[in-house]
Amino acid sequence: MILIAPYWPRPIWFPFLRPHLLEDPWILDPVPDLLTRQELSIPLATLHPQLDSLAAPLPTLVRLQDFTPAVKRILISSHQVSTRKLYASKWKRFSFWEHSKNVDPFTAPISSVLNFLSELFQQGSAAATIKVQLAAISNFHLGQHAPNLMAHRLCKAFLKGTSLF
Q: What is the pTM of this model?
């Protein structure tokens, strides 16, 4: 979850937020219509460098800053809105699981990814659901694996095993 809130350290509720943060808060530059504009006329990265990576689930989120705005729009539109939303929710679940294990989800090793998928499978998730989950993880993951996690030989074998189980 992303919470955009004023930095008010004095209210009684403010100290209770800190333990729930996964990282230090980002201080955004003040923009009058930050929460109401439909389309940003300025790049998100001008508000905070990491905001650009939240625009859409793409395989190379960190490297998106290397591209022009036109290329970014084309890459972002390569997935339907429904796919982006589905992948974002699947990624959120994986990220939460990895963070609970003190692992960076963007660079999680194959063993950790497969452990997560195995846990889902043991909880009753269908093979097709596992495949969608892996596709979502692969879309965000920045590891040094063959083109993406979906193409990795161990992931392929895992998916085949879940469909035959």
A: 0.59
